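Hi there, hope your week has been kind to you so far. Thanks so much in advance, here it is:
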Amino acid sequence: MSKISFATNIILDIFKKVLIRFKNAKFGLLFFINIFKISDFLSDNRVSIFSKIKSIFSLATAILYIISGIDLIPEIFIGTFGFIDDLFVLVWSLGIVNEEIEKYKKILKDSKDPNVIENVNYNIYD
């Protein structure tokens, strides 16, 4: 019985860490707005290739896990509660993508517009 309790505590601790990560990543309504920036994120040269691969890999992993018949909690034995692990993997994947898009938004905010010339002294004569 103690092994089951120990395993349950480990799983709940992992779930707690993931939820705190999503809270820090502003997982909510803002997340759904960030979804529309994925195409810009993937096509921008200022974003590292590692961030792009990380986002694509997490989405692909989530899709493959949801589609595949291999589950940590099989739906055959538990019924609809078996979709909890699928939902957890999907939320985990979307959370990673959201974090990367937030980093991208910070890059956009910090970058300067190439069409703006700064530190120029000028005078206007009438």
